[in-house]
TrEMBL record:
<dbReference type="InterPro" id="IPR020347">
    <property type="entry name" value="Pop8"/>
</dbReference>
<keyword id="KW-0819">tRNA processing</keyword>
<dbReference type="InterPro" id="IPR038085">
    <property type="entry name" value="Rnp2-like_sf"/>
</dbReference>
<dbReference type="GO" id="GO:0000171">
    <property type="term" value="F:ribonuclease MRP activity"/>
</dbReference>
<dbReference type="GO" id="GO:0004526">
    <property type="term" value="F:ribonuclease P activity"/>
</dbReference>
<dbReference type="GO" id="GO:0000294">
    <property type="term" value="P:nuclear-transcribed mRNA catabolic process, RNase MRP-dependent"/>
</dbReference>
<dbReference type="GO" id="GO:0000172">
    <property type="term" value="C:ribonuclease MRP complex"/>
</dbReference>
<dbReference type="InterPro" id="IPR049128">
    <property type="entry name" value="Pop8-like_dom"/>
</dbReference>
<dbReference type="GO" id="GO:0005655">
    <property type="term" value="C:nucleolar ribonuclease P complex"/>
</dbReference>
<protein>
    <recommendedName>
        <fullName>Ribonucleases P/MRP subunit Pop8-like domain-containing protein</fullName>
    </recommendedName>
</protein>
<feature type="domain" description="Ribonucleases P/MRP subunit Pop8-like">
    <location>
        <begin position="16"/>
        <end position="94"/>
    </location>
</feature>
<dbReference type="GO" id="GO:0034965">
    <property type="term" value="P:intronic box C/D snoRNA processing"/>
</dbReference>
<dbReference type="GO" id="GO:0008033">
    <property type="term" value="P:tRNA processing"/>
</dbReference>
<dbReference type="Pfam" id="PF20976">
    <property type="entry name" value="Pop8"/>
</dbReference>
Length: 130
């Protein structure tokens, strides 16, 4: 309370949605560069939703090879909350580009709160080798 008035409580505004992915590559354990990864996502967005969705804003936060018993290439992206359903649909419908390095991708987890992506395995981000 400030001078007898109650301050209205406001929650955190959710502006972004975070998606953790596992990538399958034509050469095992080789990490695709960010441009190749963006191109693959843009390609499937165009296939599904046309050229108007080709300019969907996607931030690649991290991409690398997770050092585990069986090495995996994983990535984390950030999209606007309004675009999350379109991007998730596109990622699930991904088909490889002829001759492309990324042969498949699957969503491991998605959330509007970034730390949720690591809740099941806190070491995954530290074990990535870009």
């Amino acid at each position: 309370m400030v001078q007898g008035r109650q301050i209205p409580q406001q929650g955190l505004a959710v502006m972004y949605h975070y998606i953790r992915l596992e990538l399958y590559t034509s050469t095992p354990n080789i990490v695709p560069d960010e441009l190749t990864f963006r191109q693959a996502i843009t390609h499937v967005l165009i296939q599904l939703f046309g050229t108007t969705r080709a300019h969907t804003h996607i931030d690649v936060l991290v991409i690398g090879c997770m050092q585990a018993r069986i090495p995996q290439v994983q990535a984390c992206i950030r999209v606007d909350k309004e675009d999350k359903d379109l991007v998730l649909a596109a990622l699930s419908a991904y088909t490889p580009i002829a001759g492309g390095m990324i042969t498949g991708m699957s969503v491991v987890k998605d959330s509007s709160f970034l730390p949720d992506l690591a809740a099941d395995n806190w070491g995954w981000i530290h074990s990535l080798n870009p």
